[in-house]
Amino acid sequence: MAVAAESVVAVPDWFAGAVAELPEHREVEVDGAAIHLRCWGRTGTPGVVLVHGGSAHSGWWDHIAPLLATTHRVVALDLSGHGDSATRSRYPMEGWADEVMAAAEAAGIDGQPYIVGHSMGGRVAGVVGARHRESVAGLIIIDSPFQEPSEEAIAWQLRRTAKTYPSEEEICGRFRTVPEQDTLLPYIARHVAAESVRKTDDGWVWKFDPDMLRKRLEHGRIPPLEPLRTGETPVIYIRCERGLVSRERASEIAGLFDRPATVVELAEAGHHPMMDQPLPLVATLRTALAQWDSIRRRVRADRGPEQCVTHPADMEHRHCDQVPVTVGEREFGSDTYGVGDERPLAE
Which intervals hold domain AB hydrolase-1 (predicted)? Predict the structure, then answer.
């Protein structure tokens, strides 16, 4: 992992401005656990829920969410066992999916939300789409491999022990992403690391449940996904060019959904694109949301409020043409496009 020195990479104005837009913090109780939310944008407007990856937290989106909140109500939640949310005795994927939908309602999103999930959060987003398919407008999944870890990987992680550190400086200096990647922009890594820790009576610790993996296992393994019966919900799969997922695997993942996902390639991005390619990631998300919003508005205008529909997919049933949108130099709007488990661990 290469993190450039601060003297080499100055903090850009866009990042400083984004993190200066402090979120509104809320909590919602879901199945007996307090779930922490960060919210941006106006309540009562169409919205987006951002879902972090494994052992990460809502602060990973601090510099992304404000750039989406100019047009949407945006909420990033800490899944239970992560960040500032409560822990549980078990962490079934279905429970996390219910937390996502509760976050959308508690944040004041109007109508069906779009769900954006990164890595493990993409897996959660897929379950949201299947479990609550009549209640979501669209899914965007970022570089999620949709594969369970091997027995060897599980055994290795279970042997790890949680550590406590004497100072904030020392623990933040140990911040790593899993998997590691070639480049992390230092101002982003520093911000996320500072949001990833808390002080206890014994010292500084990471803000995730150290027993999370053990609490997710059933018969010694992560339960496999049920079929993703997402109906007509539109899905975009963002494959990071330098991430975990090959083009072939991305195509396989696209076919897991009832309505096959559109695959978008994010050029030069590692598995954690908010860390190395944040602005191309924002541009891709904005383009997808703008296209879907445009379709929804056109359907509403044609049908009238009494027949209002929310799925962008409904446009296809009316035999309307898709609206191609150009991102960079390639067309966005038909099939596969290209545009130009994140765990902060001590070791």
Answer: 48-283
